[in-house]
Amino acid sequence: MDTVTIEHLTKNFRGMTAIDDLSLKIEKGKITGLIGSDGSGKTTLIRLIIGLLLPDHGKISVLGLNPETQKDELNKKIGYMPQKFGLYEDLTVIENLRLYADLKNVAHDFEKLLEFTNLKKFQTRLAGALSGGMKQKLGLACVLLGSPEFLLLDEPSVGVDPISRRDLMRMVRDLISPETTVLWSTAYLDEAHSFDTAVVLNQGKVIYQGKPYDLAKTTEEFENKVIDLMGGYRKTKSRIAENYIPKNSDVEYTVVADNLEKLYGSFYAVKNNSFKIKKGEIFGLLGPNGAGKSTSFKMMCGLLKPTSGTARIMGVDITEDPENARANLGYMAQKFSLYEALTVKQNLDFFAEIYGIHDENLKKRVDEIIDIFGFFQTRKQKSGELPLGFKQKLSLACALIHNPPILFLDEPTSGVDVITRREFWDHIKSLAQKGVTVLVTTHFMDEAEYCDRISLFYKGDAVAIGTPSALKNKVRAKSMEEAFMKLILESEK
Ligand SMILES: Nc1ncnc2c1ncn2[C@@H]1O[C@H](COP(=O)(O)OP(=O)(O)OP(=O)(O)O)[C@@H](O)[C@H]1O
Ligand SMILES: [Mg+2]
């Protein structure tokens, strides 16, 4: 039995083909992973399946229903988690759950969900005050209420830490019945490898469907196979780095965090965070969701006032002289913070202008960025309408448009496809070689290996600082993921 049958489906947006004569069957009671490059049609396909979008051509049947004409009936049987899940930010965690339970007419039985999501302690916190990953987990908990027959999850694990990602997977497997069908889009190929079926999309077409294990036995192999299917990856020289103009400065430690602390009521979001980063160093801030990484970033670039302590950027104190300190910084926020109503090019123009690039220089720099990042096709599109991975790319471009000597990147690769992730890191590594200092967070443990040093953060505290190999040696771990888990567990004791 199939939960979904699709025949010759086509969907165009303003002359661009998003779904191209696609036929697909999704098996009942199985977890199907949906993978593919950014903009390959994953979100569009999911929206067509649940009747949020209507096809131009073709037929779709979902649980024996027509999503176009039987949408209400279908809605009762599915659980859908969109990329931007609509939590009520002014309601608390528990109030959000109650509200969704009422909407779905199901019992208020939240214990298991709160347990699984590690949100039990935070049930009275406003959803708006949760960290990025905590929000993702609450969203999933809301969707799981009412035991849907068909669960559609659009990148549920974006921004979710490695420990919680396992929990999330366990949560889905344990909380659904054996008959439930799951369609799960993801950029994490280790995740996709563990599913029953993998569907790879490319330019609106299915280019592979089958058991992930048949494509490759191990996750590494699987990643390479998927990259090949998506057209392959060639390492090229980073033109961003080639064109970088180094700043003269004799400051040895370009970024210094000095006893940074942030207190909300009686809760320490960050307590006692100190580190020194050398010029040209890539420094990774790792840690589980809610550890205090973004809070540290925000304090270090002067967006949030520390309760105590300070940071120095190129020797300039951020609390005393925020303007001068910030002039040296490029900051990419975790949450998309560009102007959604402006086009790609308008955003680039805007950021170039506020960073003091004008006239001919502005035109030259923006054209160069459009060329290097491949924005030509999308330059006139509103940035709010872009696929997640494209948004991230645009945010990165805006953060480095003014050639800053220091980059603060808060989860730059979350929601970015596997090939673009490699391109991002080519830029980051090449910029560091040119003397740019990089402070970066990531939940991809393969990326953690690219850092010169790492500070592992947990519950507002640095629990370990060192090179990736030093951290692994410390707990005799074979991989960074294993080191992460062990170090966090150890600090719990
Ligand atoms: N305004 C606020 N009021 C109360 N608590 C807050 C507020 N802002 C943040 N917090 C809490 O501070 C803690 C740290 O959040 P932060 O966003 O820094 O985590 P993070 O390490 O970046 O996590 P993630 O990996 O999920 O992005 C969380 O428990 C969060 O809920
Ligand atoms: Mg964060």
Offer a concise description of the structure.
With 493 residues, the protein is α/β, with parallel strands linked by helices. It is built from 19 helices and 19 strands.
Tag the structure with descriptive keywords.
493 residues, Rossmann fold, 2 domains, 19 strands, 35% helix, binds magnesium ion
Describe this entry's structure for a reader.
The protein is of the alpha/beta class and 493 residues long. The chain is 35% helix and 25% strand. The chain is built from 19 helices and 19 strands. The strands form four sheets. A six-stranded mixed beta sheet has the order 5-6-7-3-8-9, sandwiched between helices. Magnesium ion binds next to helix 11.
Read across the widest sheet, the strand sequence of neighbours is: 5-6-7-3-8-9
Give the biggest sheet.
Answer: 6 strands, mixed
The CATH superfamily name of the largest domain is: P-loop containing nucleotide triphosphate hydrolases
CATH architecture of the largest domain: 3-Layer(aba) Sandwich
Overall pLDDT level: 93
CATH-derived topology of the largest domain: Rossmann fold
The unique ligands bound to this protein are:
adenosine-5'-triphosphate, magnesium ion
Intertermini distance? 49 Å
Low-confidence stretches: none
- Overall outline: globular
Number of strands: 19
> What structural category do the secondary elements indicate?
alpha/beta
Please outline the helices and strands.
Layout: E1 2-13, E2 16-27, E3 31-36, H1 42-49, E4 57-62, H2 71-75, E5 78-81, H3 93-104, H4 111-117, H5 132-144, E6 150-154, H6 162-175, E7 181-185, H7 189-193, E8 197-202, E9 205-210, H8 212-215, H9 219-229, H10 239-242, E10 253-264, E11 267-278, E12 282-286, H11 293-300, E13 308-313, E14 316-317, H12 322-326, E15 329-332, H13 344-354, H14 359-372, H15 388-399, E16 406-410, H16 418-433, E17 437-441, H17 445-448, E18 453-458, E19 461-466, H18 468-474, H19 480-492
Parallel strand pairs: 3-7, 3-8, 5-6, 6-7, 12-17, 12-18, 15-16, 16-17
Antiparallel strand pairs: 1-2, 1-4, 8-9, 10-11, 10-13, 13-14, 18-19
Helix pairs in contact: 3-5, 13-14, 13-15, 18-19
The structure holds adenosine-5'-triphosphate and magnesium ion.
